Amino acid sequence: MKIAIVTHAVRHNDGQGRVNYEVAVAALGQGCEVTLVASQVSPALLADPRVRWVPIRIPRAWPTNLLRHQLFAIKSAAWLRKHHSEYDVLHVNGFISWVRADVNTAHFVHGGWMRSPYYPYGLTRGLHSAYQYVYTRVNARLERWAYRRSIVVAAVSQKVAAELREAGVTAQKIEVVHNGVDTRAFAQASGTRSSFGLADDAFLLLFAGDLRTPRKNLGTVLRALPRLPPHVHVVVAGSVKASPYPDEAHALGVAGRVHFLDFVENVPALMHCVDAYVFPSRYEAMSLSLLEAMAAGLPVVTARTAGGAEIIDPECGIVLDDPDDVDALAGAVGRLAGDERLRCAMGAAASRVAQRFGWERMGAQYMEIYRRVVRFKADQVGERVGSTDRCMQIEGGETE
């Protein structure tokens, strides 16, 4: 098979980019040729002669992601239409190109986020809020257009599958393919607290994510901290540039118990230095970091609004009904901080659950979808040819 994958980046260090990287690896492992229509591609993939990169360059001078993404969609569609005979399966990610795709992975459903009771943006709440509202609304419409026109829509969680059905995507098109995790790398990593400047005598709660958006919900974690014993600290991995949370920690009087590490390159090592993972995201499709924490053997505290909560049972973590419930969050963390036996048992159970979600499993699922799509398209061509032959016979009989 010849596979074309359209995404902004194919690389190790971000969620969607890592998923597409592993899909490409799986396709190469099955002897496929892979065309990557993307702005960035990992050099490790380009070393394989069966990989072709079609670079889509988007000048940073274009203002806002909304416009830059539209330019990417137009440029990628122009190449795909011109070269459509050079691939058997076209795999895209959400709305990313003005073409009809065969397989579309739903990593995020903007319509689902907009319908969430925790959606914070509106047209009358300031310029930034108005832009975010327009961005979400436009993407919700474009995604609906893209999903409805795809042969198969791969939802990264059951939560996303439900949101796709609400958006009008027929259930027959939807297949749940959970994201994967490098179970070996996270299970076998090691690290020391001193290498990250962390205290040995503290109970360390890790939070990892984008600190520029309120959606990830670090604020609730910080507000829960004064209700917890003084030895409970929060370790924050994520760029602090343009983030309001360092100031919020100072305002709450807990700055000495919150350790902002900025961008962390060796996340597996960091996860082996902490005691638990907290992720009460207000909206998530399927969190890679949640899977990574589980693979590292950490008990997790999350919320039902976070994609990935569906795979967590009471043996390996605590799932809150409301991501903004400060008391419930403090109570959950307090249980873990005060009971080492419970913490170790949950961590071991989390590791066992994560073992079911390796990248190889995810890649195999996508390869099976590709094969089904190829068969489906071949059957459609056969039906059209048969229909044309029958019409020609009828016309010929009438002529005679």
From TrEMBL:
GO terms, molecular function: glycosyltransferase activity
CDD domains: GT4_PimA-like
Keyword Metal-binding: no
Alphabetized UniProt keyword annotations: Transferase
Residue ranges constituting the Glycosyltransferase subfamily 4-like N-terminal domain according to the UniProt record: 14-183
Protein name per UniProt: Glycosyltransferase family 1 protein
